[in-house]
Write a structure and sequence with these properties.
- This protein has about 625 residues and is of the alpha+beta class.
- The chain contains 20 helices and 15 strands.
- Helix 3 crosses helix 6.
- The strands form five sheets. Strands 1, 2, 3, 5, 6 and 9 form a six-stranded mixed sheet that branches.
């Protein structure tokens, strides 16, 4: 590649872009997790079995817990939980899964509903590992319809948990004795004097160190693709727990007289109050996906620089990165990864501002979290697949890490609300909200400049309106009286509108980040990434923009050349941009193909498939 950018990429430029990716306060928010993944307990093991990986995940959970000043403080801080997922996700998706369940869904829910001031010491010291049981065999995203029951027993002043049939078994929680005794928060339908009061959480001991407790049935599910997490089917046969087991609050409680009271009249809202930690879980899934995409992109860029192939006739061998067919997709991935990072922080900041409040601001913030989770995890899959392909057969080997992250992000796509389901919900909400807005008119004063990020941001906003206008038109042309048919007619363009909304939000986050940088190399490079991201999405929708009068035919014809020039500029800086990810050297050493000496491991029949200090190591050398 021939550089078209001016001047060296300084250490200051790298620091500025790191702050763009991780936040201005990244040393405090991210520093401890970054240091932790550089320690020996988090090095990649050599040829582990699935059971060894599961044991390792719980061992690492204890290492993490021992490193904390307070597990309760971590559980109460969604920003810290997100940072944990961002750094530990690329190291060990299995460990990150069990850590997220224990600290966010379990401990976080206990703290959010701690009106009884429970003794949490067993869970804070990991004498019992916490888990979360909501999804059932027949009820995934429709948690409001779950069928596990918790009947209030007045005589014993407690609750009887029961699984009425096979379809009501809790599906996929990590409830085996692996890792030690388990205690779960079980989502169950509260029945008081025969009345269904909605879904609440109940604190239920599940196993000791060896087996399930009486009345609790736990069976391991078949191995999940790419993950050794101890996913299980779990059911209850009239298990009694005391009144303190109910995680009550303003949304519902049992009084001393045994009567039920609630400040929330709607059973669905009671459910949402009970499982409110799912929103923080969505943010954590986005963080995990962002971290995994950055790590795989860093490895792919490094591998592309030292993997040499035959060049054009008479030029000898060249790095595979020299080819446009190789560095072009990675440049596009870089623009997307920055967009993912910026949208993740935008959603997190917005939610932090509005959580704990009531009103449209909170609803919009929660919707942005959901939209961001869906878009970011889908983009992470695309980035990881692209990087895997750019690294060829080497990346198919488990020791090179990419296969584990690909299957890990598949889990994130489904966890905390399946992407399509949460985007469909957002699409419906935004579709009806959009009915109150006037459709935008083509901008006056002639077409804008394709080099102007503000004009590009306006085009992304226009695309969002175009897709929702199309959805409204389709719904309006469908006869009333059949809601499903009307939704089916509108859902396609409405979902495209949600995608366009994610693009607009990411573009606005890019604009804010650029505006916050001083003039110089970092700002110039971020502006190039900003334009590359926007123009790539605009090019995919240029026909719609042309038809609506937002761009001219000449601009549509220019788009490929403008994109090509940006790809050249960004590709020239890929190694420096990877440096801004601030990945620890110890992490990169666990990915053999990230090092220029990766071939050495194939030259020693006794070598471990791990790198330390930039070289392959034999077992006796550790």
């Amino acid at each position: 590649m021939t550089s078209t950018t001016d001047g060296p990429f300084t250490e200051r430029s790298t620091e500025l872009l790191t702050a763009v990716l991780l936040g201005d306060d990244h040393r405090r928010e991210h520093g401890s997790w970054r240091r932790l993944i550089g320690t020996e307990p988090f090095r990649r093991p050599d040829r582990p079995t699935p059971e060894e990986l599961l044991d390792l995940a719980y061992e690492r959970l204890r290492v993490l817990n021992d490193s904390l000043d307070s597990g309760a403080r971590l559980a109460a801080d969604p920003r810290a939980l997100a940072a944990l997922h961002e750094w530990l996700g690329p190291v060990d998706p299995t460990f990150t899964t069990v850590a997220g369940i224990h600290y966010n869904l379990f401990l976080g829910s206990l703290l959010d509903h701690d009106d009884r001031r429970r003794d949490l010491s067993d869970f804070l010291r990991l004498r019992s590992v916490g888990t979360f049981l909501c999804t059932e065999v027949e009820h995934g995203n429709d948690a409001a319809a779950i069928e596990t029951t918790a009947r209030y027993d007045r005589a014993r002043d407690g609750f009887v948990l029961h699984t009425p049939h096979a379809g009501a078994q809790k599906f996929m929680p990590n409830t085996s004795p692996a890792g030690g005794p388990k205690t779960g928060l079980v989502a169950a339908r509260l029945l008081v004097d025969g009345d269904d009061q909605g879904v609440f959480l109940f604190l239920v001991p599940l196993t000791d160190a060896e087996r399930a407790l009486p009345g609790v049935r736990v069976r391991r599910l078949p191995a999940r693709m790419g993950s050794p997490v101890d996913h299980c089917l779990t059911s209850f046969d009239r298990v009694f727990v005391g009144r303190d087991a109910l995680l009550g609050g303003d949304h519902g409680r049992i009084g001393e007289d045994g009567g039920f009271s609630s400040g929330v009249g709607n059973r669905r809202r009671r459910l949402l109050a009970s499982i409110g930690r799912v929103t923080a879980g969505k943010i954590s899934m986005s963080a995990c996906a962002v971290g995994s995409a950055r790590a795989t992109l860093a490895v792919a860029v490094r591998y592309g620089a030292h993997r040499r192939v035959s060049g054009p006739r008479g030029t000898g061998r060249v790095p595979v990165m020299a080819h446009r067919s190789h560095h072009g997709p990675l440049a596009g991935a870089m623009a997307t990864v920055f967009a993912m990072s910026l949208l993740h922080r935008r959603a997190l900041d917005r939610w932090e501002t509005h959580r704990g409040r009531v009103g449209p601001g909170r609803e919009e913030a929660e919707r942005l979290v959901a939209v961001a989770k869906g878009w970011i995890t889908w983009q992470a899959r695309s980035v990881i697949v692209e990087c895997r392909e750019r690294c060829g057969a080497q990346a198919l080997l488990e020791n090179n890490g990419m296969s584990a992250l690909l299957t890990g992000v598949e889990g994130a796509i489904t966890a905390e609300g399946d992407n399509l389901a949460i985007h469909a919900k957002a699409a419906a909400e935004m579709l009806f909200a959009a009915e109150q807005r006037e459709p935008p008119a083509p901008r006056g004063g002639g077409p804008g400049d394709l080099s102007d990020p503000r004009f590009l941001g306006g085009l992304l906003e226009a695309l969002e309106e175009i897709w929702f206008r199309r959805a409204r038109r389709r719904m309006g042309s469908t006869p009333h009286g059949d809601p499903l048919r009307r939704w089916n007619a509108a859902s396609g363009p409405a979902l495209r509108g949600v995608e366009a909304h994610a693009h607009r939000q990411a573009a606005e986050a890019y604009a804010d980040a650029v505006a916050g940088l001083p003039c110089g190399h970092a700002r110039d490079q971020l502006t190039r990434l900003q334009r590359l991201f926007a123009l790539d999405r605009i090019a995919r929708n240029s026909g719609d923009l042309l038809a609506a009068g937002y761009v001219t035919a000449e601009q549509v014809e220019l788009l490929p050349d403008v994109l090509d020039g940006l790809i050249t500029d960004v590709a020239d800086r890929l190694p420096e941009l990877v440096d801004s990810f601030a990945l620890p050297a110890e992490l990169l050493a666990d990915w053999p193909i990230a090092g220029a000496d990766y071939v050495d491991a194939y030259d020693d029949p006794d070598a471990s498939w791990r790198r330390d200090g930039g070289r392959a190591t034999a077992p006796g050398e550790r």
